[in-house]
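Running this now, will post back.
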Amino acid sequence: MTPVETRKEMTEALLAHTRTVLAEGPLDRARLERVKTALSELSGQTSLWAEGDFPDPDEDAKQNRFQIAQDAESGLTLYLNVMRPGKTVPPHNHTTWACIAAVEGVETNRLYERLDDGAVPGKAQLRETAVVDLRPGTALAMLPDDIHSVEIGGDTVIRHLHFYGRPLESLTGRIAYDLDAGTCRIMDVGVKTKV
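Update: finished.
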């Protein structure tokens, strides 16, 4: 079997497994942990995510995002993010669940809780609750309202799988937070996805 065929077979198995888990009942952290574990196993197949198939971004771009698989009916979508050192994403939520698993390199995720009740539009106060360095063999699962930021340090390009309950391009209600200003706003979709 070729790497392309193997990748297709394994991503289809991930989608099928996830549909089964989600059909068992309302989404909770325990079910999402099972999805995260399956994604982590897929990320361990490093030969499937090589630069030959998924090129590094240009120096100016900092990130290439490749859509690997999408289930049109459920909305489940798997991406490979290839990012250069210096890439940052401010604190944000997703409005859908998200799992991230490292293929190669380290992606630093800071997790936050929102302290205010959202009663004042455009204002928000966050408190950092954890720092998670995602490196090969590790993964992170987040519920729709969980908030995180991303920073790529070091000196090498990273490759990480990002798996969502809906396509990123459809998530028009995500909120980005400015920690210093104590503000929030609707987040842009961001980097164009390559299919």
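The two ends are 22 Å apart (CA to CA). More later if anyone needs it.
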